[in-house]
Specification:
By secondary structure, the protein is of the alpha/beta class. It contains 13 helices and eight strands. Helix 6 packs antiparallel against helix 7. The radius of gyration is 22 Å and the shape is elongated.
Length: 319
Amino acid sequence: MSITDAQQKIPLGISSCLIGEKVRFDGGHKQNRYILDTLGHYFSFRPFCPEMAIGLGVPRETIRLVDNGGRTEAVGNKNAHLNFTQPLIQIADEQKDWHRQIFGYIVKKDSPSCGMERVRVYYKDQPQRSGVGLYTETMMRNFPTLPIEEEGRLGDPVLRESFVKRVFIYRRWQDMIDAGLDWASLTDFHARHKLILYSHDQNLGRKLGRELSAAHQQPIEDYATRYLVDLMAILKIYAKRSNHVNVLEHIRGYLKQDLDKSDKQELTDSIENYRRGLLPLIVPITLLRHHFRRNPNEYIDRSYYMQPHPDELMLLNSL
């Protein structure tokens, strides 16, 4: 179901150049049509360019990250005496109020201000892809559970699905907090996301569940903070095909008394062909949805695993 009302869209932060604003050093932009035309149906974007925000104009000298005695600094590419390290850190800190109001952030890859990973850092003029843009690094330190992704990595189907899924889960988390956190709501939240966690790492998912069950004697606010950190860490682990197969087979077990021989074989074949890479994940999931519509199960119906985000995004079609 597409969301057309802008007020219902999930707000994300985004590097200004990715929506077409001409803020790059050469006066250009890096508009990304997938972000605008596809994700834009479900997300609203708050653009921000930290380099413009600290007073750098267009056009401008490029900046780069350099190692200065073990400390990463942002300096002019031609004039190394121009140091923008503290302004970029400070401008990130100054955005905390609206960073608290978003549910994810898409940043520009390779940028010395916005890049999320593998940004070039120069060690005596020898570059190594070991850095993080200073604005993004500061934001991640301030909000370690906020879903953040680079636009370049959104071209990978697994990373794209993972990011969007984390955004929707983070939004559901905040909705739960806003509604009034208690042990019942947190336990229900975990139950509805448990199979998703298992698809990323079954052992860590089970461990988180055990910790939740044992945590009821401590203040819920303290534990919830730790729970969210662990939750988002698990969701950042790549969801392997073999893990999805384990979850699909687990879900199939809820139908063992309801299906005839031919339906069971069809479902088995569908999961096996997904395991072999012959079918995308959406095929066995669609078949499971069909059988659960005919044979409802409250636990499966409430689980987000088979519909972690809107079908129209077609993210499961490429996994």
